[in-house]
């Protein structure tokens, strides 16, 4: 949505109501193109979800039936593709699993790109604008200092909650500002993953230097 409004609370209200993102005047041509492309990718992903075959729906139903009985599991991964596959699987242990996939994915993807690969918020903003984000992620994933780094995920389910613990091997980050959108980041193409995840989880707690996070959803 193009708007003259730049108050953070107005942006938040719009996002929660279903607006993909805001871009305020004046804006650069490159920023507009980047946001449109990002929105189109998001729309294509949603269309693919809506066009799932009966086979896939039945497969996910069976997966959900199996995962719903899980009380504890531990997983390891290193690549973004694996993060998204794992998010899809473990979401089945959560109530309202379809809504939780995106929130879980945001946390797991962050642990790879910002954690193990050390891509900062500012670096990602530039990479997204230049259309080189995916290329950079693939490049850093194969560097000798990164290729053996893992993200460890554990999920524990009780009668009262589902708790997901994620630990990466990065240097951590200052996480507090990312629970909220402020005027300095509210119109960027990135930097809202933790905030969006916090809308689905009941609590998100970062530990130590920020490379460990515990996300809890009450049942």
What would you note in describing this structure?
The chain is α+β, with helices and mostly antiparallel strands and 219 residues long. It has two domains: 51 residues, no CATH class; 165 residues, Heat Shock Protein 90 (2-Layer Sandwich), CATH 3.30.565. It is 47% helix and 16% strand. It is built from eight helices and seven strands, in the order βαβααβααααββαββ. Strands 3-4-5-7-6 form a five-stranded antiparallel β-sheet. It has a two-stranded parallel sheet with strand order 1-2. Helix 1 links the parallel strand 1 and strand 2. It is globular, with a radius of gyration of 18 Å. The N terminus is likely disordered.
Map the helices and strands.
Elements (H helix, E strand, L loop, with lengths): L1 E2 L4 H10 L5 E2 L4 H22 L3 H14 L4 E6 L2 H11 L6 H20 L4 H10 L2 H9 L9 E7 L3 E7 L25 H6 L4 E5 L4 E7 L1
Parallel strand pairs: 1-2
Antiparallel strand pairs: 3-4, 4-5, 5-7, 6-7
Helix pairs in contact: 4-5
